[in-house]
Write a structure and sequence with these properties.
Strand order of the largest sheet of chain A: 1-2-3-7-4
Shape of chain A: globular
Oligomer: homotetramer
Number of helices of chain A: 9
Strand content of chain A: 15-25%
Structural class of chain A: alpha+beta
Helix content of chain A: 25-40%
Order of helices and strands of chain A: EEEHEEEEHHHEEHHEHEHEEEEEEEH
Largest sheet of chain A: 5 strands, antiparallel
Low-confidence stretches of chain A: none
CATH topology of chain A: Chorismate synthase, AroC fold
Chain lengths: 361, 361, 361, 361
């Protein structure tokens, strides 16, 4: 009831804090027979890992996943699969500063209001550290989707500050293009500018926001449920459950506000017994159910709240004070958000992939 | 598993189609002792009802709610509460047109892909008709929130096409201001222009999109869960579960993409033992948990897909054809969206209001 | 969270009290394409109905089911299916007696302790009246199981007081044998004695307990989940969720306590590529998963708590008083339990039937 | 959806196999502020552990629990709490025998039927090894119940084979009495006979069944839900979810079948503003809700299926063969069942303890 489980058929339950012994995820609902090993988890974990480039946090975390159960002789058994990622950087440190002060933009105050107690070491359960096991579970979901339907999940950075990438066809972007630069923007020119901007704000002890676009291709028509569990609803929840996400839109998104029906409707057509639409303002989702067109969504990510420059704030007792976050934080969350967003997209699709088996007699 | 239930403690389960006998909601988790009668449901049902003004659909639906259970001697009993709203307008009609054609922007094709069968009368389960019982349940949630915490839920239309309302302080808007005009925009000048625009697009056999802003005031700090069931995540799911919503943002929303941390962080301050923030770009939610500041979110609503002018489409067999929607549809969904959005906001808050009782020893 | 939903894929959510407007069930998870009408529900509802014979309560309830949604052109649509059964016998009556007194063996006191308020008319939500919609939902589950797998669900009365039926082969019992007498015991000699005993206790203003045996044949091997959702666990919950059930056992049941492993183990054998066991002390369930052998379980049902003779009790204020239940109650719950038990057995199997689709890649 | 989660508010999700790296449980819903350390888990784990006495299996398992999350500075944080118990005895061994043969009474065949693949090492997920983390979670639940309400949970062995313990007052039994002998039967005379019988069947390469009684005292009136989540239903599911349980009854249990209402009804009385019943045939549960009287239930446990003597069986291919279980197995499951049953009883009560906070306004 404290919301550590996500998904209904393919579901993940997680535990772990930033500076405790480790993080763990239990995946329930994975069918038997999928080939899987720790190696399958490592690619995306490396993409999420701190210290991967000069424009992300320089903390050290090895992120070595250990599969504790659910795999036998290289294949999933159909029983619950647990993955453990131990925390490395648990050195004892002086936390007296953040123990008593509320960092602006963080969950320090709200955790105290909720629980009356707070693991203040690195943000505890509110730290983005918890997303490591989501990314591991997402890698499992991706493998399931790829094997069963050839589905591909691709995310990238669309915007950092005022710099917007030009992406003529989101469904044509490849992982190689995304991974070609450290900011994970497939528009090389924009990427160069984004990297420069991120380095600039970092040098100014500041941070910067942005948007990320996520695409799934190969999803069959007919996935999703009609009312509360619309694909768009589950995706909305999935994305907003990630730290720092302030907005989510799919297809034309907020752009629909200024359109007329004649401008917005995507017209159906039929090619070789396959029904498609001429355009994709609906982002692959109609009535909450997939249409067979690429699923496209975007998330708005706020600038990192942790700043190494001094900010005004208050103590737990309401006294005015200042705080500067020690340690090394991401000047921009976007490059590391990409694998997190992809993971949640994959997890939602894996859930609905399996749920679809229940629709017809 | 087909997603007809929403919420974990205060939860609603719904059934019903556009042209079947009726729609029903079962509310589970409503505590015993709340005064409640059918009259409590009627105000919001009237605000959602077709035919309420010249700028909405002119269909006739009485929307008389009947409480079937869960209330005794004027008070809730703590057991499941069912509300039935019969459909009135069930006259048999010639549906051969939409039975075989896929309306652009609708769920006709995707329902067929999912279920292999489709109740085509008025969209069946995909019709916004299903939101009537959500609004009834939302009225119950509003009453619970008002009685326990004095919480107020207000929604209004923020934008229609290019016309934007000027709302200096969302938290100061009153129901009276919203209900002062038929488009439900508290900026009177903008409202006049919106009404004119809606009438224009209606006369041109077209439709128009827009945005709605939703505000909850009086919500205590500490509601919401840290990981998957963040308040923002549940609100995101709630809003995206409503028909025609293509985007959701809270606080500064997509505007965060161009801000720096120093510009975006809301600084804490303490007044008379109450901790607040100097600004509210975080929309009342930090780390997925309420901060005690007003909750503010916005939804993007697409232009109505049903158009009375002819549109190209295909038949179930893939043959090219045209379709013009007969019957009278909303030229703009926004005025009737407001009570739907409020209902879902109230339902999410009622759920977390009760869940908060479980947080501490 | 108040437990009005049962099942995970094929799930039912119910509402309704004994003397309110009616009872309703929403079935979620029923696949599209099953032929269904109200007629399919009426046979079992008639078997559960009061007034069906001289040995059950003589209350009048018509139990006319109305399908409110989820069926179109005679087939299920895959969306939520609601069934409404109105209460007929709602005449206002003088309830002052039971309003203030706690009936022995009933939930009057415990409801007050839980909710602080209680719909005392006929027991309100604690009345067995709520099982009417379970039986309706069970009829839907039975139809699904019969169509997909040819599964048959049969229940009967095994024991009333000291009278035990002799049932050489539970899996061979037919509905016709069960319905051949009003006590629903397929052993005709035992049935005659049971009826005489029930009439005797009724005449003595008393009641009598008994046991019922439930059998499912045709269930394939492999249904059920390994740990918490073992078939036996879900069946246990299902049966204990019915009023008056004090004990549940399957296969050899409590008889296993005195057996040795060599006496209890059922040995496997293989016939024409089908694996079976030579005996069925395991009641068709091994490790919580179906073995393909008939599922056999038994429930112990307590004697009706309502007695027309005077019993000692106390008032809400703790004052000593006496109570005699007016109205006409079942002198023995067993004959009407049979369709309730069958319904819950069918609902559990329908749930696991669908869940089984998720087990393998 | 594969049923690795139990409980709704206080809920546990488990993973792990007999011979994999380890077993893990994530507890969700534990309120913040409970003092907790690994030491709290060790007492019950030692009671469940193999090798604890001469009448249980002599396998070696250390069962050292590690709390991975959810505790900070010795108190629970209100976030998910994970406990890891590594498996020690993972030496590679020759499993070719059980890999291809179906052990009578085990889940080998049914797992193959369900998943098409099976971790045959020690039974994999079907092994009682998975109950170690249940017992750890149960210890947490016990501590919560004791601290909030002074509730005590006691289990003991009631019967082994034909030897029945004489327990005049189940609610008066103490842990010390239970732990006074290795069979965990508080009737010393019966215990001596039980131990002798267990040693005898072990020497005869056989096994023996029995029953266990479980008691909770101090539970307030008013816990449980009226319909599907009756306390008795959740307890029934909890107990049947444990390996080898073939029957569950509470209060008078199956004994009710031969009673009349006048004999079975427990009459209310009031003492010093506390309402009790003169007798407790209802086992502390009326209408599925606790009455404040001691909760009493009994489970029937089958004789261990694994036998070191040779039994007939078949191979996966249906060929006739024989099998004798190597390794050392419990000749009687009862002594080690006691902490498992207590754990599940505690987990159910902890769940309803917290759910009760939601009942009233």
């Amino acid at each position: 009831m404290t919301g550590n489980t996500f998904g209904k058929v393919f579901s993940i339950t997680t535990a772990g804090e930033s500076h405790g012994p480790g993080n763990v995820v239990i995946i329930d609902g994975l069918p038997a027979g999928l080939e899987l090993s720790e190696d399958d988890l490592k690619v995306d974990l490396a993409r999420r890992r701190p210290g991967q480039s000069k424009i992300v946090t320089q903390r050290k975390e090895a992120d070595e996943p250990e599969i504790l159960s659910g795999v036998f002789q290289g294949k999933t058994t159909g029983t619950s699969l647990a993955i453990l990622i131990r925390n490395q950087d648990q050195r004892s440190r002086d936390y007296s500063d953040i123990a008593d002060k509320y960092r602006p933009g963080h969950a320090d105050f709200t955790f105290d209001a909720k629980f009356g107690i707070r693991d203040y070491r690195g943000g505890g359960r509110s730290s983005a550290r918890e997303t490591a096991v989501r990314v591991a579970a997402g890698a499992v979901a991706k493998k399931l989707l790829a094997q069963l339907h050839g589905i591909q999940i691709i995310g990238y950075v669309k915007q950092v500050g005022d710099i917007q990438a030009h992406i003529p066809d989101p469904a044509a972007i490849t992982t190689e293009q995304v991974e070609a630069n450290i900011v994970r923007c497939p528009d090389a020119d924009a990427a160069t500018k984004m990297i420069a901007l991120i380095e600039q704000v970092r040098d100014e002890q500041d941070s910067i926001g942005g948007t990320s676009e996520l695409v799934a291709t190969g999803v069959p028509a007919g996935w999703g449920e009609p009312v509360f569990d619309k694909i768009k609803a589950d995706l909305g929840k999935a994305m907003f459950s990630l730290p720092a996400v302030l907005g989510v839109e799919y297809g034309i998104g907020f752009g629909c506000a200024t359109l007329r029906g004649t401008q917005n409707n995507d017209l159906f057509e039929s090619e070789e017994n396959r029904i498609t639409t001429q355009t994709n303002r609906h982002g692959g989702i109609l009535g909450g159910i997939t249409s067979g067109m690429p699923i496209i969504l975007r998330c708005a990510i706020k600038p990192t709240s942790s700043l190494s420059q001094s900010q005004e704030t208050i103590t737990r007792d309401g006294e005015t004070t200042t705080i500067a976050t020690r340690g090394r934080h991401d000047p921009c969350l976007l490059p590391r958000f990409v694998p997190m967003g992809e993971a949640m997209l994959a997890i939602v699709l894996a859930d609905h992939c399996l749920r679809h088996r229940l629709s017809q007699l």
